Fold Transmembrane protein, putative.
Amino acid sequence: MKYIALVLLAFVAIASVNAQSPTDYLYRVGNCTQKNNSTCANDQSCTATAGRLQICFGNCYTLYNQTLDSMLPCFKANCTSIATNSGNSNVTTYSNNVISCMSSGVLSFAFILLVTIVSTLLANY
């Protein structure tokens, strides 16, 4: 059991070393927005509104100290209304896709936390 715990703890150590710094997080925001830009292909109205969403996203990033758990609620509260009010389904899809992309980081953190707890319990067993 202790060997399994050590393997799990090694995994957590590697994942922690690769944890996102604020700069990495900014790249993640950029990757999520860039990856979803194709949603607005050939739709000037969508592209313009997506640009406004990115600015709003950047404001949330600046205001909430570049943390994942603070920034996503800010985006949902302040930026998704831009997409909803646009009346353009492509913009709404773009906004939802960006939220899904950004939310995957929360799941990674939860998994690392779970592995840490399980490995600690196994080490004590």
Summary: The two ends are 7 Å apart (CA to CA). The mean pLDDT is 71. Helices lie at 2-17, 22-35, 44-63, 68-78, 80-86, 89-124. The chain has one domain: 2-124.
